[in-house]
Amino acid sequence: MKKASMISVGAYVPPHILTNADLEKIVETSDDWIVKRTGIKTRHIAKDELTSDLAYKAALVAIDRADINKSDIDAIICATITPDHFCMPSTACKVANKLGLYDITAFDISAACTGFIYLLELANSLVKSGTKKNVLIIGAEKLSAIIDWQDRSTCVLFGDGAGAAIISEAKDDYIIDVHTSSDGSKGDLLITPGCAIAHPASKETIENRLNYLHMAGNEVFKIAVQTLTKDVEGILEKNSITSDKIDLFIPHQANLRIIEAVKQRLNFTDEQCVVTVANYGNTSSASIPMAMNDAYEQGRLKNGSLILLDAFGGGFTWGSALIKFGGR
């Protein structure tokens, strides 16, 4: 069996910043209310860019840092719940076109906030099986397009952005373990009801605002904390690694209260944790690679760093990954 490594990470956020003060002018809310309940202070909003544009710009950074030619990439997989088009073409195909790559595997997956960990599992399998040598994985979201800006409970939470990484065949097996799972019985707690087959686009669908994201916040919060804690404990125990051996704990950036609750239960220190939710809000599948990119640019994420990723999202989906960073 081949060996695999994450050899680079990159990210892109659109330039427009929406502050809590800006939101006070849109809905009945306040900076104090948002910060206390979520830890979010700002988020980036894509005005004249599509999800594929965000993905492409993040991909360019990852490719440059990987020190490979883009022609060396033989697969592109994108995780998104906000694709440019309803069914086709996929966001990955559009990114391949923007990169000038016309004869490679390209497809999307939908796993909400856990999307990047699902991508990591797929890319790891493709490389270790020998099927592919260099897989570009991208988490990209334009969540501002599916947020109800009249719903103060959800519109304060989300932002736009993209994060990318390249998984390549390597001499050392730096992707130690990846775990993904799901529970479809709780899907209604975090859902975009329309405008697909269950509730096709219609005047009634739009009037009932079914084309926007709906979330039962309190229920999702409780399940997320319990599930993430159990999942991280499981992957550490399986690999005989204690939390003090982790260089960086990089969780999905959904809510500071969730991150703090999981951190405390697992005894991670502030120095071990990467927290970016204050600056970007919840960017779903882009969240983890964007946080990784921040840590990389700050000099915290280095070659050989042992990192633990975890995420929980709509579906419900969740997952964790234990890897050593193989980038320069």
Key attributes of the depicted protein:
alpha/beta, Peroxisomal Thiolase, Chain A, domain 1, EC 2.3.1.180, globular, 13 strands, four-stranded mixed beta sheet, 11 helices, 328 residues
Order of helices and strands: EEHHEHEHEHEHEEEHEHEHHHEE
Radius of gyration: 19 Å
Count of discrete structural domains = 2
Output mean pLDDT: 93
Write down the overall geometry.
globular
Helical content (DSSP H or I, runs of 4+) = 25-40%
Beta content comes to 15-25%
pLDDT < 50 runs, ≥5 residues: none
Q: In this structure, how is the largest beta sheet organized?
A: 5 strands, mixed
Question: Strand order within the widest sheet?
Answer: 1-7-6-4-5
Structural class: alpha/beta
CATH homologous superfamily of the largest domain, by name? Thiolase/Chalcone synthase
How many beta strands in the DSSP annotation? 13
User: Judging by the overall fold, what is the CATH architecture of the largest domain?
Assistant: 3-Layer(aba) Sandwich
The CATH topology name of the largest domain reads: Peroxisomal Thiolase, Chain A, domain 1
Question: Would you state the CATH class of the largest domain?
Answer: Alpha Beta
Gap from first CA to last CA: 24 Å
Number of helices: 11
Give the oligomeric state: single chain
Keywords: Acyltransferase, Cytoplasm, Fatty acid biosynthesis, Fatty acid metabolism, Lipid biosynthesis, Lipid metabolism, Multifunctional enzyme, Transferase
Pfam families: ACP_syn_III, ACP_syn_III_C
Subcellular location: Cytoplasm
Enzyme class: transferase
Architecture overview:
By secondary structure, the chain is of the alpha/beta class. It has two domains: 171 residues, 3-Layer(aba) Sandwich (Peroxisomal Thiolase, Chain A, domain 1), CATH 3.40.47; 149 residues, 3-Layer(aba) Sandwich (Peroxisomal Thiolase, Chain A, domain 1). It contains eleven helices and 13 strands. The protein has a five-stranded mixed β-sheet, with helices on both faces. It has a four-stranded mixed β-sheet with strand order 8-13-12-11, sandwiched between helices. Strands 2-3 form a two-stranded antiparallel sheet. A hairpin with a 3-residue loop joins strand 12 and strand 13. Helix 3 packs across helix 4 and helix 8 runs parallel beside helix 9. The protein is globular. It starts with a strand and ends with a strand. The mean pLDDT is 93.
